[in-house]
Fold this sequence. Notes:
This protein has 156 residues and is an all-alpha fold. It contains six helices and no strands. It is elongated and about 90 Å long. The model has no long low-confidence stretch (mean pLDDT 87).
Amino acid sequence: MTIGELGNIGEFVSAIGVIVTLVYLAIQIRQSNKLAITSAYQARADANINLVATALQSPGGAVALNKCLADQPLDDAERAFVDWYAEATLVYYENNHFQYCAGQISEEHWQATVGSIRRFLALRTSREYWQRNAGTYRDSFRAVVDQIVGEVSNEE
């Protein structure tokens, strides 16, 4: 083998090495982007959960939720609280859906979340909130919730 042929083999091996490195870096960047997006959604859910925790400490919060659970009429302040609570709850569920779609949550966890969404939407006030505000959520999550709302409504 001549030096020229060895040089050609070296160039070929180097080119393969560059391709392998580029594929590896592309995979790493994709995973990094996915992690950044899921982290942003998690931060959004955490912020909403903190809002609910603060609201639940208010004296009227427990009363409003109890009325909601008993399907009793709500005054304006109670309706505002229940809507706030519903928004934070649905943002939490939407975050779980996003994490599930991104492969960050297992099928088992997601199915448990669907059961929780179903119980939440069994409340009339939750469905009313959803009807007024569904457009503020991602299309893919809205499709899931709309299906559950239809199922829950048919069970009544």
